[in-house]
Target: Cytochrome c-552/4 domain-containing protein
Amino acid sequence: MVPDQERPRGDVSHRRVARPRAGGARRGDDRGGRRGVVPADGEGRRGAEAAPEKGRDAIRPLQVTALVACVACACEPSAPREGAAPSNRAASSAAAASPSSDKPTPPPPRARAFPADRCGECHDTLHAEWKTSAHAAARRSPLYVAMRERAKDPGCEACHAPLAALTDPAEMAVDEGVTCEACHAIREVTEKGDRPQLSFDLEANRKFGPYCDAKDNYFHKMGCAPSFREARICGGCHAFSMPLGSGKSLPIFTEYAEWRASSFSISGTACQECHMPAELTHAATGAERKVRVGHHGFMGQGGEIIRKALGIVASAAERAGKLEVSVVLKNEGAGHAVPSGMPGRQVVVRVEARDDAGPSQAREERVLGRVLVDDAGREVPFYAARAEKSDERIAAGGARTFTFELDAPRAGSLVIEVAWRSASPAITAALGVPAEERSMGRIEIPFGEKRAGKGREHLPKTVVIRP
Model:
């Protein structure tokens, strides 16, 4: 883990992916927590008014439809006890139904949610990190937009736009996807079945985090939620099985279940230790003391985190006019399978032999990923799937070896590359969105005849490919 020392937050290259701690030991923290937004001091900007107190809502992901319907219909109140005076709400409902009522009953008030830019006024570094994350793009990424339009399932919004069911849908924060308010309104997390249930609380403009000694400030109150240090707060959305009918279901998002089955869970290494590497800094402008604050870019989506998760070793030899190449991938830094997330994500191992004498070249590739299919056996986006065809991912702690044989030119170069894809070509074609690919590591090995003044590599050769 990163030592408690000051570092500039703009560069995260120094941060190491957490490894499981031996013996299942959990590291303590004498300040009451280690992750998330932490306390600012009681002093703040003058002239601003505290936000008014608002209501409280709690949802379970994929129950957004029911919650929205409840709010729209004003949720019929329960009958009062015999002899008891009706509540104000019941009286209002009765008045609205009475022919003598002159004015309709207004809908119940909904909680206020502030856009991320307001949070960034005091948490500027965290805001800048979040803006680069997949959470910030959760409601507007081309893949999600295309799937939402075709799936026509409002339940997707429970995780991609959680505030839509908790606040006025016209609020700017709703379109920000998994924004500041969406996570820091999580009051508690309870385990229920294979998927944790998140309870949201927007009452009194209170923001929750792992530090229980946090002070209220001029803009918002502070709430204590120890679950911000635990993997189960991520499991509320990173665990989902799609009902198929007749009591059957198809696992879709499996990261949380994979983590629970890994050595990372046994040793107490939570998701946050890899995806939110922490450092000692001020949580907010004007904070009195420094605390450990997690990086809010979440380090996913084929970026630095996946490059650190995989160890890549390649070896090549030339025999009888053939290039024999072996590439070993080891999942040594992730507490879940690689690639993870949405089914259809891929890791591609690509080998290419280039001829110095001309344009001819030989190329092969292998693909790692999970394939879901429809009733006809065609690879489809998960919302249209009925079964899993294959799962070629690398489990936590596992390894895979790929071998290639290419025609060897007299002189040329051998290029070995490992890349991450946001979705398979079949899925991007079905959705009409561009494919996204990012290199995780690449190396080029010249070989063959020696040119004047320039040495050439000799095979066999073994190399470690680094980002």
